[in-house]
Amino acid sequence: KKISSNVEIFVFVTPTCPYCPKAVRTAHQFAMENKLINGVMVEANEFPKWSEKYSVYAVPKIVINEKVQFEGAVPEDVFLNSIYEALGIKLTF
Hints:
- With 93 residues, this protein is an alpha+beta fold.
- The chain has one domain (7-87): 3-Layer(aba) Sandwich (Glutaredoxin).
- Helix content is 34%, strand content 24%.
- Strands 2-1-3-4 form a 4-stranded mixed beta sheet, with helices on one face.
- The protein is globular.
């Protein structure tokens, strides 16, 4: 499905997290493929108020449009399904 609404993806990371680079790469890849998607990496320790606001207790923590949140470096299809979920798009298989 084509994404036709704005999508804001925050990826919370820490410098020592081994899984964070993959999560950031996935978010930025989606952003490069669609101009309506904005991928933002947030260093959790440098932005404690944001980390508190989004209940960041483990990284990588992904927040999409302030509606969908998950932790971990997930496969691209799972990440994309979370974007659709945040946009209220139901997928049919």
